[in-house]
């Protein structure tokens, strides 16, 4: 079977121009990550709408970086499911369907119960202390309102789930979780009914208490209840599009 050719020659040219492993590789990655983070915020906050085009050239010039760095940032977001790449068309903000949203939560129920089991075996006294600190931060953000606080709250509440994955000590599961949390945040921003993350610190606190009491069954039950609750708070009914006349209220 012939080797697969690169997507196009301009891509090949870029690769040829890229210097081999240099000291700047680390800063290249750092800059790509910083751009990824600001783009992710804009997507989850819906300042960039689903379907919006993200051109490498524009991202590069806005952040004064090379197209190669802009491309790395977009590829990281594509890996997280927040950006969709279409061949010959470029990158777009993902527009997850209601069905995809359901699949994300089905995946979370399967993976997070497994994570909980491994985490329960590994939790140290220091870990419990770190989780309690984290939940304090969440509770404080909950009292705050406004778009910025909401964005922070979605992010911080996702961190609770990522911390469990970290303690579980399986790097591959943790990567899965990073992707699932990123996708969940987008889906919550798109379909959330109440305008808050609904990934509440009360539920998190209950899960932590059950783990501390050594009651894995109870922690698992609460985790499933928690994920069901987040999903139930989404409005995933098929949206019937208004006629132009109705949309314009004529
Ligand atoms: Zn949660």
TrEMBL record:
The cross-references to PROSITE patterns, in alphabetical order and at most eight, read:
HTH_GNTR (PS50949)
SMART domains under this entry? FCD, HTH_GNTR
Pfam families hit by this protein:
FCD (PF07729), GntR (PF00392)
One MF term from GO for this chain?
A: DNA-binding transcription factor activity
Return the Gene3D superfamilies for the record: GntR ligand-binding domain-like (1.20.120.530), Winged helix-like DNA-binding domain superfamily/Winged helix DNA-binding domain (1.10.10.10)
Task: List each copy of the HTH gntR-type domain by range.
Answer: 29-96
Top-rank taxon of the source lineage equals: Bacteria
What keyword terms does UniProt attach to this protein? DNA-binding, Transcription, Transcription regulation
Q: Where is the composition biased (Basic and acidic residues)?
A: 20-30
Region listing for Disordered, in residue ranges = 1-30
Which CDD domains did the record assign? WHTH_GntR (cd07377)
* Protein name, entry field: DNA-binding transcriptional regulator, GntR family
In which organism is this protein found? Cohaesibacter marisflavi
